Amino acid sequence: MLPSSGCARALVAAAFLLFHSSCQSGGTPPTPRERALREFEGAYPLEARSLGTVRTFDLVAEPTEVPLIDGHALRVWAYNGQVPGPRLRIRLGETLRVRFTNRLPQETTIHWHGVRLPNAMDGVPHATQPPVQPGETFVYEFTPKDAGTFWFHPHVRSSEQVERGLYGVLIVEDAKPPPYSRDVVWVIDDWLLDETRQLFPRFNTRHDLAHDGRWGNVITVNGRTDEVLRVRPGERVRLRLLNASNGRVVTPDFSGLQAKLIAVDGMYLRAPIEPSGFELAPGNRVDIDLTFNQLSAAPLRIFERFFARQPNHLADIVLEGEPVDTPDFGSPARARVPVWREGLEVPEHHAFRLNARGGGPLGIEWTIDGKAFAGHSHAHEPGLTLRQGQFYRLRYVNESARLHPIHLHGMFFRLLARNGVPVEESFFRDTVLVHGREEVDIALVPTDVGSWMMHCHILEHAEAGMMTMIDVEKE
Ligand code: C2O
Ligand code: CU
Fold first, then answer.
1. How many whole angstroms from 328 Cα to the centroid of ligand 1?
2. pLDDT on residue 382
3. Do 246 and 458 contact (CB within 8 A), yes or no?
4. Is residue 287 part of a domain?
């Protein structure tokens, strides 16, 4: 049933048609839910606007050897022989067509993390497509609705396939990209190498399952431990960061630099803010607007400080060459992001309980509401059914002591509160880190019909059951 009042129905229509409703003239003041829905109007496009241009890429997944970490031959699985995989860059309104071939020794799919796309292109095995068998091809084709920094990775045995090197960045440029001096991508990954300096060959170990997944002993940026960004004084850089690790959370530190956070998980903020302190969990992306205006001989060393006492070096920035004029333009971070002050007044629609127990094929199962996802090949009951165009408040109750970066496919959400304390983030997310024993409230308006996954992006937790489906039904 739709909400009882005709007013709410009109608001749903308003949210979808982007015209203004005249609800308030009826006399009864709008409910918190109605106000929240009205505030959502125009936050992001409901439909893709296709320009009719198709950009075609070929992707092949196969085992290979790359001179990766410190230049020695590392046996990986890679897209087109590269780790990170090729950077796919299109413009908003263009259609992406990827002709994918699987040359791995096991089945796979490609999931387009963060992209609002037709459900059939989402790359979830058995739910949205049959897995792509070794030797087979599959064509992914869609027109993204949003510009931003996205990424792609397998959704089959992802704790193994992503760890082996299968991931890449998809950049959807704005229809009119702001004139940065450069657009730079840093893909952060965390590798567990053994004493032969090859990938530790056992996946989903008891240790990893009982902790925060597989944390490694080498952190790379763009596959290197010595990544250097060389810029000229005066340049203004758009730096896009992705955390492609299985389990490690990083907190990049840009203090001391002229740096602003302009986008999270692909989507622009309401206004730019200080970037330091952002916990970049597996799956998260941030875009940083950096201006280099002083000459500095020494390289700027960039660290991450998730554990304050154990900082990790990520990469260096070197200023060199002739100074240039700094491009002068307003920050692109000026999105319509609802404040949703009334969000916490809306009754919570569902509280997901996150926990673990012994048992299952791996010895430990990670559960959502007491259920471990029984493997993609089994028919699934949706963990939750939502209706398109409605406002929902959802809660995650972490009954465990471990980290759970919860990721939703096919929709963005806004963090409302942590442990009941309101958090006013001026941006949407597709992944939020839920800390041990924490309770997190989020709000969202599903815009896209389909069967969408919700799972922990610590890939070992996901493999051990911490996945479910959210069905979004047509309004
Ligand atoms: Cu990057 Cu289902 O996830
Ligand atoms: Cu988890």
1. 36
2. 83
3. yes
4. no
